[in-house]
Amino acid sequence: MSLTERILFGLYVLCGPVAWVVIAYFIAIGRERMNKLKKNRDPLPAEPPLVSILVPAKDEGPRIGSCLQAVLGQEYPAFEVIAINDRSTDDTGAVLDTFINNAAGKTAVRVVHIESLPAGWMGKCHALDNGARHARGEWLFFVDSDVRLSPDALSRMAALCIAREYDALSITTTIETHAFVEKLMLPLLAATWMTMFAGDQTNEDSELERAVANGQAFLIRRSAYEKVGGHAAVKDRIVEDVELMRTLKLAGFRTRFLAGRELAATRMHTHLKQMFNGWARIFAGTARGHIWQMVLAIGFLVCCVLSLFPALAMVVHLGEVTSFSWSGTPGSSVIMTTAHASVGLSPYASYWLFAALAHWLLMMILAGLVWFWTGNSPLYALLLPISVPVVIAILIYSIRKAISGKIDWRGSAVDVRQTSRAAKPPA
User: Fold this and answer.
1) What's the CA gap between 167 and 427, in Å, rounded?
2) Do 345 and 318 contact (CB within 8 A), yes or no?
3) Residue 320, number of CB atoms within 10 A of its CB
4) Which of 84, 170, 223, 422 gives 127 a disulfide partner, CB atoms 3.0 to 4.6 angstroms apart?
């Protein structure tokens, strides 16, 4: 091999198989940090504290019923439910009223109807702030209206927090998918977000600047929530869950972000347009309007994922015809004459082939785990040549939105630059 060939091959090995070995190492560490709910089954105290479960809903008439059924089915012995109808224009309010009437006497349930949104507030923040004002619990459990909790979800989360003296706990959930595009894209988008923002670092108490959360299922000690100002402290943030967790951690409270696939399931975006807008909000909002993390993510996907395909093309290009022969008799017609050729690989091409195979194998195993950990088929990892370019397109779209500052979310134009500064808890 010439010096140029050695350099080119070395760069590919570093970006391909070596990079994925390093990624495997950090994934193993991250999973260890996030598996406490699965590994530990702490018991509840004899007299567990009251938990207020708050469920905000805006135009969720078709789905809110199944969410509340799961909420009311919690095995935890002491909880109340507060459902917040946030300016819905469909039948959400009527569904909630009917549901509450049917649940009367079974547990403490109430509905809060919100008719208007004050200036300077995001709708969900305002809804949850209102709900928290009606809550009586020592703990607040925020649950999105598209989430289905398992019966033991609250018991296990509360038991862990009480036993380990955590102040806030959020979990990842099973990503419920139906259509092909959901199965193809959502697990990879979630994994991209987790990797970009080092979600497992939320569990390192010394890393005060690193924290994320999933507002779909978010349990917070009430005293900590009130100490940092609650949702009023993050009232204008488009990723209020992430910013609230960051605010809690900066204030010295113990925060945790753990794997909770077996405790809850969520169906998120159902088509590409929703994915582009929804994940642009999540990526740009979590990055607080900065673009460097998204640029690095694109660079990683190009250099460490898509580089496999130029490597395979290099193997084909370097293939050599090692022998060529004709069979037939002198004077026979062309039709009766056949050619025999065999193709071999030079040592240089063999190096590329082995490196590409190692790259592909490592990538398929780790990507397959991404789909498995979100409750989906690992076979979708085989379609990375399709899904990765779409993720890159969504990241580019997110960068454009971060630069312009404008994101369309739930029918409103939101200024992502409002998230460019950290929320500060009250003195």
Assistant:
1) 19
2) yes
3) 10
4) 84
CA dist 314 and 353 (Å) reads 9
Backbone phi and psi for residue 143, each to the nearest 5 degrees, phi listed first? -130, 125
Per-residue pLDDT of the chain (427 residues; tens, 9 = 90+): 688 888 999 999 999 999 999 999 999 999 999 998 877 788 999 999 999 999 999 988 888 889 999 999 999 999 999 999 999 888 888 888 888 787 766 678 899 999 999 988 988 999 999 999 999 999 999 999 999 999 999 999 999 999 999 999 999 999 999 999 999 999 999 999 999 999 999 999 999 989 999 999 999 999 999 999 999 999 989 899 999 999 999 999 999 999 999 999 999 888 999 999 999 999 999 999 899 999 999 999 999 999 999 998 888 887 654 444 555 555 544 444 454 444 456 777 888 999 999 999 999 999 999 999 999 999 999 999 999 999 999 999 999 999 988 777 665 667 766 555 555 555 5
- The region that residue 135 occupies, defined by phi over 0 for left and psi between -120 and 50 for alpha, beta otherwise, is beta
DSSP letter string, 232-264:
GGGTT-TTHHHHHHHHHHHTT--EEEEE-TTTE
Residue 55 belongs to what H/E stretch? strand 51-57
Q: Where are the alpha helices (DSSP H) in 153-229?
A: 153-164, 180-196, 222-227
Please tell me the CATH code under which domain 35-173+214-270 is placed: 3.90.550.10
Please give the distance of CA 299 from its chain centroid, rounded to a whole number.
Answer: 19
Phi and psi at residue 252, in whole multiples of 5°?
95, 5
Residue type, 414: V
Q: 0.90 exceeded by the pTM?
A: no
CA-CA distance, 244 to 230, in Å (whole number)?
8
Residue 225 to residue 231: CA distance in whole angstroms: 8
Residues 291, 420 contacting (CB under 8 angstroms): no
Closest CA to 147 of 85, 57, 51: 57
Q: Tell me if 366 sits within 8 A of 23, measured CB to CB.
A: yes
For strands 147-149 and 264-266, give the pairing: antiparallel
Structure-token pair, residue 105 = 């006497």
Look at residue 331 and give its three-state secondary structure. coil
Task: Name the residue ranges covered by the structural domains of the chain.
Answer: 1-31+271-322+341-427, 35-173+214-270
